[in-house]
Every structure is written in C-alpha cells, then in structure tokens.
Amino acid sequence: MKKFGKALLALLVLVLLAAALFLYWPLTQRSVPAASNDKPVDVVLVGAGIMSITLATYLQELQPDWNIQVYERLDTVAGESSDGWNNAGTGHSAFAELNYTPELPDGSIETKRAVGIAESFEVSRQFWSHQVKEGRLSQPSDFINPTPHMSFVWGDDNIAYLHKRQQALVKNPLFYGMQYSEDPAQIKQWAPLLMEGRDPKQKVAATWMPLGTDVNFGVITRQLAAGLQRSPNFGLHLNHEVRALRQNADKSWNVTVKDLKAGTETTTHARFVFIGAGGAALKLLQMSGIPESKDYAGFPVGGQFLAFQGADVTSRHHVKAYGMAETGSPPMSVPHLDARKLDGKPVILFGPFALYSTKFLKHGSWWDLYSSVNHNNVGPMLEVGKDNLDLVQYLMAQARLNDADRQAELVKYFPNAKPGDWKLVTAGQRVQIIKRDPLKGPVLQFGTEIVTDKDHTLAALLGASPGASTSPPIMLDLMAKAFPEQMKAGWEARLRQIVPSYGQKLNESPALTNQVRTLTSQTLHLPYLEVPAEGATVENAATPAPAPPEKRNANEELQAL
C-alpha cells in the first residue's frame, strides 16, 4: 500500500511539473536569424484577409512611398474568414440583429451599440465607394447587393420587444425607413418562405429595412489585393508563415518567415507590424512578447450553415431574416435565413449551428487552443468558463445535433423546407476574446478589439463580429492609435477625401446622412431613402438605385475577377 501511495505521489508531482513546464514555456523565441534587408521595410502585414488588405489600401493611398509587405500562410488571398462561404455576408448595420439592442430592466431599448454599428457601416460604404471610383474595385454587384434586412419573431413578449425596438431605432436618421408589421399577409409579401406553411394561428411580427445589403468580403479582399500589386512598393507573399517576432533595441521588428513551399526561413526587418491573421492573431500577439499580450486569451467557435442552391428556393427569398436567440443561448446563436450571392450565383443560407473546435483557423491545428494557454491567461480562462457554463452547455448540445435536429430548427423559419433541398457547409472559425478587464475582471467579449504596444510599432486585431463589414472604420481606429503623428501631419485631410464623413457623425445629422448616402448609393448601385429633417415617418418606400454614371473609373482587368 505504501508503494502504491509513493507511486501515486510521484505521478502527481510529475503531472504538476509537466503542467508548470507547459504553462511557463516561453512563447517568444529567444533569438531569430538576422534580417536579410539592411533598410527596414515600412510595414509588414501578417495575414491576407480583409483587415490587412484594407489597411494596406489605406496606407498605399496615404503614403505611396512606403514599402508594404504581406505574408499569408495559405496559397490564396482571403482564404479564411474573409471568404464569402466562411461568413454570413451581412453588411452589419444593426437593422435586423436583435442582440445589438438589448431590453433594459426598465423596459426601454438600448440603441447605443446598434447606432454605432450602423454608423460604422456607413464608413465602409464610403471607403468601398471611393475604391470603385479609383478603379480598385470593379462592378459593385460583384461584391455588394441590395438585400433588405428583416427581424422576425413570434410570441407575445418577443413581439412587444420588436415593436419597441422599431419605435426606438426609427427616430435615428440611420434607421429611417424601417417598417414594422404584425400582418401575416404583409410579412409574406416581404419574405414568402417565412410564412408559407406556417400555422395561421401563430402570432408573428417583423421589421423590414429596404437599405440592407449582402456583401462578399472575399471578392472585396481579392480585388483590393490585385490593385495593391500594381505598386512596386507592395509585396504579397503567399505560402509564407510567420514563425517569430522579435523587437529590436530601436523598437523596430525582426519578422521571421518560413516559405512553406521551399522550406526556407528568412527574416525581414520592419518599422511597423500589423497582425491581421484572424483567429491566429492571438498566438502571434503572444509571440511578440509585448506586455499588452498578457491580458488576452481566446475561445474558438466554428459555424455551419444549411445551404440552398436550387432555383426553386433561391428565386423566392431576397432578404436577410434574423430571428431571436433561444433563451440561454449566446449572441452567436442568433438564427437567420439569408439571401446571398456567392460565386456569382444566388444562395440561401440558414444558421449558424455552432461547431466547437480547438482550431483557431479553419485551416489551423487542433493544437491551437492548447498552445495559446500560459500562466498569464489560464486563470482568466478558467474563471470565464465557470461564469459561462450556459455557453459550454450550448456548445455541447450543438455538437450532438444531427440532420433531423437541424431540419427541426430550419422549419421554424422556413416551414416548407425539405431535407433534400439543403446541404451542410462549414464556415470559418471565430476566436472570441477572453480579456482581463480592470473593473470587471476576466470577461468573455463578443466583438473586435485593437491591441497596440506602447511604442506604436505593433498592432493586432482580435475578436470577431461585426468584423469584416466594419473593416474600414476598424482600420481607421487602428491608424489613429498606431500612427498618431502621421494622422496629424496630413493623413486626416487625405482621409476626408476617402471617407467624406470622417470626423463627423451621420446619426446626428439627417442632412449629412442624405449627403453621404446619396454619394455611396449612386456609386455602389444601392437603394436610397431621403431622411426628412423633421417629422420622420416610416411609410415611404425606397427609391430604386440611381443609374450608374455614364463614365465609371473601373479597371477592366478587375472586372474579370
């Protein structure tokens, strides 16, 4: 018995030593090879998704003499979350997403976050409109299309909430034109698939916003990348994986990169590094060793959708219809039936269904989550896990779903759906932020966050939704944090040409809203509603998209992409 006790104690000691070794194993590389370039490049961007390519597009316009190099581990641009099949494609304006407008204890509706997201998407529209005019983006219908946004609910409490939400939002210029109805005939006119086959006794309600959009962020990313490559000061390196980041005494960075085809490693000397690698950004941020990285951990969640591609379905649904998450479910579980345009063809997607994986990228490693755990973040991760048992239970339940279970969820929104009409597709990975908040302690955060070092020489983007649809304003925020001197020295004036509303708020001015939306609607071929200065009503119908100007500065080569 004593021998068994000693053996058990020895095993426990070994386990504790192994755990300590694992948690305290250095994430940063103690030394990296010498840089191959004597003169440092101005900017290194890690990852060729929409964030990095958007930042590169800004920088090339603001500072065309800067040398910008992008390193991407895959063999293509926008191969992860930016690809059209790997995200919901919603131009997030908070028109339909109910989780952005919580009901407060006093019964009122909190609209602050929704207004902020709508404001941000107007910045995105301006940025993309400018790129169309400059010929970096081609035919707008290749990447953005008018797609009304709907919220759809049932049950007395949810109906009362939706009505209050519409009444609260429609007072704001950005939400003018949002209609509300409890009339089944009207809702059927907006979205036939939602109503056909539904129990006529079921009480339902919906809002309908004609200014919504469907966006293919993969097309945007690839076209902008093609435009960037026209400059001799820009380099795009596919099949290249960043393996080490080390800061030099002068605050510049040595970035060690492996050519995955040749098997060789080189080191690039850079003045500034942006980590825009999607789910992999956390591990790369940890690799940098900056003190700010110690406050973060990540929680990966994947998603799956039911895809309809038959014309008998896709020809009858032309909206994005968002529902309400079931009680106890996390925000990421909000179901929606979406009209999409993917690979040039109409598609209907329903979901998401959560897919738990320890990978940080769709093309990542099962070891990703474990290798990101260390002595700085293991405590916050455990505490957040304890405080979010409902999320853990939700993911476990989702993992047990079969096709019959998914069909049962689908018919709540598409009553006449047939199992043979859809196929299950896997979307991209999202890594939700776990951070150490100075006031609240460890929290699980939904959204995106920019992390910069104190020297303004390295920045990373962590998190997910709304993500891609607000990439232009997110990168504006990043530049303000990372390049404060350049912003004051002339960049801000140039940015007002790219984003005319820069430094102003559309949601505070019907006149500015009309001015900006007129501009972007014409360029992007989107519908437009004029917001009255006073006494807004919501009965107006959207006017058709204005005809494109006779001469459009669109590059013929890009139109073929």
Report what the structure shows.
- The chain has about 550 residues and is an alpha+beta fold.
- It has a domain at about 40-90 and about 215-500: FAD/NAD(P)-binding domain (3-Layer(bba) Sandwich).
- The protein is built from 17 helices and 19 strands.
- A nine-stranded mixed β-sheet has the order 5-6-4-13-14-15-12-16-17, sandwiched between helices. Strands 1, 2, 8, 9, 10, 11, 18 and 19 form an eight-stranded mixed β-sheet that branches.
- Helix 3 packs across helix 16.
- It is globular.
- It starts with a helix and ends with a helix.
- The relative contact order is 0.17.
In the predicted model, the low-confidence regions spanning at least 5 consecutive residues are 535-541, 545-561
CATH architecture classification of the domain at 41-89 and 216-498? 3-Layer(bba) Sandwich
What oligomeric state best describes the polypeptide chains here? single chain
Q: What's the level 1 CATH class of the domain at 41-89 and 216-498?
A: Alpha Beta
The strand line-up of the biggest sheet is 5-6-4-13-14-15-12-16-17
* Sheet of most strands: 9 strands, mixed
> How many helical stretches?
17
Mean pLDDT: 90
The helix content is 25-40%
What is the CATH topology of the domain at 41-89 and 216-498? FAD/NAD(P)-binding domain
Give the CA-CA distance, first to last residue: 73 Å
Shape: globular
In CATH terms, the superfamily of the domain at 41-89 and 216-498 is: FAD/NAD(P)-binding domain
Structural class: alpha+beta
Q: What is the number of E strands?
A: 19
Instruction: Output the radius of gyration.
Output: 25 Å
How much beta, percentage-wise? 15-25%
